[in-house]
Amino acid sequence: MSFPSLNDIETPAALVDEDRLERNLAKAAAYMRQHGLRWRPHTKTHKVPQVAAMQLDAGAVGVTVATPREVEVMGSVADDVLLAYSPVGASKLERLMALPQRVRLSVGLDSWTVMAGLIEAARKAKRTVGVLVELDLGMRRVGVQTPEKAVELAREAARVECLEYQGVMFYPGHIRMPLAEQGPALAEVSNRLGTFLDALGAAGLKPGIVSGGSTPTLWRSHEVVGMNEVRPGITPFFDRASAWMGACDWEEVAYSVLATVVSTEVPGQAVIDAGSKALAKEELPIGGYGALLDRPEVVVYSLSEEHGLLDLSRTTWKPRVGERVRVVPNHVCVSVNLQDDLWAVRGSEVVKHWGVEGRLRGQGRLLL
Amino acid sequence: MSFPSLNDIETPAALVDEDRLERNLAKAAAYMRQHGLRWRPHTKTHKVPQVAAMQLDAGAVGVTVATPREVEVMGSVADDVLLAYSPVGASKLERLMALPQRVRLSVGLDSWTVMAGLIEAARKAKRTVGVLVELDLGMRRVGVQTPEKAVELAREAARVECLEYQGVMFYPGHIRMPLAEQGPALAEVSNRLGTFLDALGAAGLKPGIVSGGSTPTLWRSHEVVGMNEVRPGITPFFDRASAWMGACDWEEVAYSVLATVVSTEVPGQAVIDAGSKALAKEELPIGGYGALLDRPEVVVYSLSEEHGLLDLSRTTWKPRVGERVRVVPNHVCVSVNLQDDLWAVRGSEVVKHWGVEGRLRGQGRLLL
Q1: What are the pLDDT digits (tens) for B9-24?
Q2: Which of A170, B57, B144, B330 could form a disulfide with A135 if both were Cys (CB 3.0 to 4.6 A apart)?
Q3: ipTM of this complex > 0.90?
Q4: Which residues of B touch A368 (CB under 8 A)?
């Protein structure tokens, strides 16, 4: 199969630097080994089964997913899939239960309603589903609020024959500060986790899996007392937010959006053909929606749907219409979700095409 | 063809209230007729050829698009397509020139470089392409800055045999304030437009088409002196921003995202399965990322990728896990761009399925 050259590829187009991707995977794997942590990467970041396969080859124990489509796509390469999301509704449950029996499926949940739906679906499908009780350790999004409720849900999961009580999960997504400032927040997470683990242990329900972790806190995961599994998403690719938080160096960022300069008429700026429909419009405390990979001093200061505006006030570079640039978006997961294709590059050569197969959602195309 | 019921459809799913859609189209068409304005709706909002066909049936003179994919998809239902975007790069130009000859294609541009590329491609394809010179009337995104440059580009477009000089275009996208406050900003647009029109007229290049308009300013388009065509995008569907700006009543909003409550564990809120990957995370001065269609006092106050958090502080409603809601996002165009499917509903019955065919971008799937 032959690929277009970087000069011919139509913009905007999403690129993955495969050398950096491989180094990022090796670094994450080494950290997990060093600290004896199970690594279960969240594949919502890339939604590409080939990238999930690379993570499994590098030592991941399984994968994490967020949607039924991701379960289906990742189930083709992984034999251990955690849906870190409560499945609600007949369509979602049916799709989960249709997963091949060779795939071990686990689900995170925080309520009796979700557990009841899962029990009914699992019985009907004659399969066993793993359960992680989801805890709220300070993010205030989902998760049980009290050790008592965690114990009750865990006890029921352990009792019912079609469920397997595996442990607990949480997501410290409220910790989005630079690396140096994370210590106190992580200590607080440890404290809150401890009260849950103590209660579960006292009830004879000591969790086998204590799953947490996020990319911002990735390299300090070993400081969270009692956690034995982490589910970072952004690690293979990284982004502008990761670099700002100190989770990676700028030279480790593997994902960018190739764009073309389409106008330089307004003084002080250049306009590229990557807007909010290619980069996604997510804010950061440092301002802007992205920065150029090779000129990080040039920031995308404004986005409309198909236009990105580059601030040229801190560069001597004078872009011309037709010139191409690589933009690192603030948040890679939502940018990937806007793509149909990822192009893997080595240096300036395009070496692979990956379809973003986990992106499709809903059942529309499948029903008709 | 049978469709799933609203109770069975997998969430998140994008819905279009077809009764409201029809009323919105009729209202826009009547306004244009009343004021003698050409109506060239921007189809980037819906990306659905069937909706474009409804707009043409209601009286639109043609359609506006932003990308090569939209040109191709809308060219299947329209015989007059304006690409309101400078095409740069061989791949985009080739796709444009491959449009059937029955389709009249026009392009907006603001530079010699874009014009030179267009001339070369049009000559090679033996077709005539319409040109609108793009003016900057205060938005500071794209567009020529001076009447002199507008005259030079217009003169060249009129001279070259494969181009047809049609007029000028602009986008007053910097006017995003509530309707009552738009008057002074629109008068300023009229003043700036006047200097361009005077210079073009004096050079014997009076534009036939003076194309502008946006949804926020839609119902005051007739106040812009000299403008004879408008290109509103959001009109058929509307959204939370439109309602805030007074461009529509809440009861005219035709687009919503059907979502399911998945957690109510954290007090004071409910969590739905529509996050930034279904609603898009765009800010508004009034805060929040969306509101419930049937309970607008309930605002989506926080979004992560697959979770939306409903603020329950201003309602007596007590949502249960499994309950379904319809969310109106802040900005409909970027929410539609996250969907593969739109489901048209009449009351609570699903009556049509539309593929978001203009969404696919780039050439990846086409090349392989």
Answers
A1: 999 999 999 999 999 9
A2: A170
A3: yes
A4: 1, 353
